[in-house]
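User: Reviewer 2 asked us to show a designed sequence for the structure in our supplementary figure. I'm pasting the structure tokens here. Could you produce the per-position amino acids so we can include them in the response letter?
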């Protein structure tokens, strides 16, 4: 079970189709792990559908409708696993961007113990979307954020000042947070991250590396 979820704001925006591509991919990846958030998104989609059906001359009271959220809806239909699904350790929504296996990723070393690969999105090229691989016990350089950073763990786990994150968990960092994620002992950690604005590294060497390797 996942312990850390996207905020309800991200889930509602995802249901409305209002997230930029990178963030939408990350939330979709989390939904493959998390029945709880799938249910929230399903209810938000039902709410959106109700808005669309409203008579334009009799507009729905959005505030009152949101106050009733979440609603009691019929339970989600059971998910049927596709027969002979290919073995994969990458969530289905991410596979068009990076293939089906983490072992197929061609990493570039960014920092001792840290490798990365840039993921190219189609509709929001300004976003910094990437995969990160931290060796066991290794951490990212300490950094703050110029924008919101969303992270989902795809393999292993890491810990920072805000807690421990395992496969399927989502971390949200904003410009007020200075943190240093460190991969837990026992194996490497792979994360998919989406950053709205470039990270602000405290170390000038890390800033140089970011400038020349991360783009
Ligand atoms: Zn969740």
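Assistant: Here is a per-position design you can include in the supplement:
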């Amino acid at each position: 079970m996942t312990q850390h979820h996207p905020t309800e704001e991200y889930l509602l925006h995802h249901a409305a189709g209002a997230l930029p591509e990178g963030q939408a991919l990350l939330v979709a990846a989390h939904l493959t792990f998390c029945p709880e958030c799938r249910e929230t998104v399903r209810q938000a989609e039902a709410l959106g559908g109700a808005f669309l059906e409203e008579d334009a001359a009799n507009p729905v009271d959005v505030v009152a409708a949101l106050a009733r959220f979440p609603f009691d809806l019929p339970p989600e239909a059971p998910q049927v696993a596709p027969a002979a699904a290919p073995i994969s350790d990458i969530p289905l929504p991410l596979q068009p961007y990076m293939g089906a296996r983490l072992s197929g990723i061609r990493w570039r070393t960014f920092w001792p113990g840290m490798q990365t690969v840039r993921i190219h999105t189609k509709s929001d090229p300004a976003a910094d979307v990437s995969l990160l691989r931290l060796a066991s016990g290794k951490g990212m350089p300490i950094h703050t954020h110029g924008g919101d950073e969303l992270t989902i763990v795809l393999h292993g786990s890491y810990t920072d000042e805000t807690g421990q994150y395992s496969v399927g968990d989502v971390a949200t960092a904003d410009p007020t947070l200075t943190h240093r994620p460190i991969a837990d002992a026992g194996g490497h950690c792979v994360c998919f991250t989406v950053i709205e604005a470039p990270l602000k590294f405290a170390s000038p060497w890390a800033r140089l590396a970011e400038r020349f390797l991360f783009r």
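For the response letter, you might also mention the following. The pocket of zinc ion is lined by residues 2, 5, 30, 34, 36-37 (CB under 6 Å). The helical segments are 8-15, 21-33, 35-53, 62-67, 95-98, 204-213.
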